C-alpha cells in the first residue's frame, strides 16, 4: 500500500503519515465516484454514459501498464548507470561523493623495480603516488634484502605518461635505484606460472636450460664454460656447489662440472632470482642428459631417404667418422682453422649445454650432415657441415631452415654464420631464408647475420613441426 522509501539495517522503513494520506484519498475517491454515479445514472442516457466511462478507464489503465513495462525494460541512460572502465573495481565512492579517476583511453604496460625502506607505510606511500598518476598495479613481488626491500611491479599506465615522469614520482615517494622498462602481454603471466613453464621446458630438453635462465632473468648474457676447455687454455674458476652471487653477476656450477655465468650489468640480481636460477640448474642436474627423440624422414629428389633428428654426445663416434670422410677443403670452410683440431670441437658442439644439433643420417644409419645452433652469449650462431658426396642436394637448406625456426622459438633476435666468400653453398642457403641479411668481413672471414621475426617460424619450420619441401618430397614424422 505504501512505498519503501529507505532501508535501515537491511529492513524497509514506512512513513505512517503517508499511510493516512493514501487512506483519506481512497475514501474521497469512493465518495466522488458514488456521487457521479447517482447523478448520471438517473438520467435518460445514464447507463450508456457509465458503460463508456468504464471502457475509457479500462483502456487508460491498460495503456499505463504497457507504458510502465516498456519504460522499465529500456536500457539505462548515461546518467542512470555508467559501466566500469578497465581496471576499475566496483565499490564505495570517496567520502566527498566522487569516485577516483580510472585509467581510461590508451594504456601501456611497464615493468618497474625499485628499492624502498623496510619501514611500515613505505610501500603505501609509493602506491599512493602511483594512484595519483592513475597507474594501475597489476602485480607486485617483494624481495627482502639486508637493507630495504626491492619491489617489482607490473603496471598499467596512461599512454601519455612518460617513463621519466613515472620514475620521478617514484623517487619522490621514497623509491631508490629505480629501473623501468616497457612490458608486453607475456609479462601478465604470474611468476609461479612462468617458473613452472620454464621448469617443464628444461625437464624435456637439456638444451633449454640457457634459454630458461634468460627468460627467467630478462635481458642478460649467459655463458657456459666447460670443465675441460676446447683446445686447451685456462680452466674456468671453480664455484661453490651452491653457486655465487656478486651483484650483477651470478655463477652456478653446471651439472657436467663446468660453470654457467650469468651477467646483467643494468640491474643487480636479487637473492630470490638467484634461488630460482639455482633451482633450475639443480633440476637439470637431477634429470641428467636428455634429448627429444622425435625425427623426420624425408625423401630426396633422386629417391634416397634421409632422417633428420636431434643429436647428442652419444653421436660423437659417428660424427667423427663423417668428418674423416670429408675433404680438407670442406673441413676448412667449416672450422676456419687447422683441420686437425676439428675432432676436439665435436664434444663441445654435440653437448646440449651449448646449443642444439641436428643430425642427418641415411637409411643405413650413417651420419652425413650436422647442423648446429650455438648459444654464444647473447647472440646465436648457426653452422653446417655436409659430407662431400651429399652436398648440393638441398640438405643444407633444410637444416638451416629448421635451425632458424628453433632460434625463433627461443626468442632470438638474430642468427649469424661465419664462413668464407668462396663457400657458395652456405651463402646461398642464408640468402634462401628470405630474411634481412647483413654482411661483414672480419679477419678474412665472412659473417652473415640474419635478423629474425615471427614469420620465420612459419616459412622455415623446425624438426618437430611440419617441415618444408626443400630437401625432398615425402615426409614421415615419428
Write down the CATH class of the largest domain: Alpha Beta
Biggest β-sheet strands, sense, barrel: 6 strands, antiparallel
Which value, in Å, is the CA radius of gyration?
A: 38 Å
Poorly predicted spans:
1-13, 71-103, 456-478
How many individual domains? 4
Write down the CATH topology of the largest domain.
Answer: Aminopeptidase
Structural class: alpha+beta
- CATH superfamily caption of the largest domain: Gcn5-related N-acetyltransferase (GNAT)
Strand ordering within the main sheet: 15-14-13-12-11-19
Shape: elongated
Report strand %: 15-25%
Mean pLDDT: 76
Essential attributes:
six-stranded antiparallel β-sheet; 478 residues; alpha+beta; disordered N terminus; 13 helices; Alpha-Beta Plaits; 35% helix; disordered C terminus
Layout of secondary structure:
Blueprint: E1 6-8, E2 11-13, H1 16-41, H2 46-72, E3 107-116, H3 122-132, E4 136-144, E5 149-158, H4 163-172, E6 176-182, H5 191-204, H6 209-217, E7 221-225, E8 244-246, E9 249-253, E10 259-263, H7 271-287, E11 295-299, E12 305-310, H8 316-325, H9 328-335, H10 342-350, E13 355-362, E14 367-376, E15 379-386, H11 395-409, E16 414-419, H12 424-431, E17 437-442, E18 445-451, H13 456-459, E19 475-477
Antiparallel strand pairs: 1-2, 3-5, 3-6, 4-5, 7-10, 8-9, 9-10, 11-12, 11-19, 12-13, 13-14, 14-15, 16-18, 17-18
Brief characterization of the structure:
The protein is α+β, with helices and mostly antiparallel strands.
Can you give a write-up of this model?
It is built from 13 helices and 19 strands. The chain is of the alpha+beta class and 478 residues long. It has 4 domains: 1-32; 107-187, 2-Layer Sandwich (Alpha-Beta Plaits), CATH 3.30.70; 191-287, no CATH class; 295-477, 3-Layer(aba) Sandwich (Aminopeptidase), CATH 3.40.630.30. The strands form 5 sheets. Strands 15-14-13-12-11-19 form a 6-stranded antiparallel beta sheet, with helices on both faces. It has a 4-stranded antiparallel beta sheet with strand order 4-5-3-6, with helices on one face. Strands 7-10-9-8 form a 4-stranded antiparallel beta sheet, covered by helices on one side. Strand 17 (437-442) and strand 18 form a beta hairpin. Residues 1-13, 71-103 and 456-478 have low confidence and may be disordered.
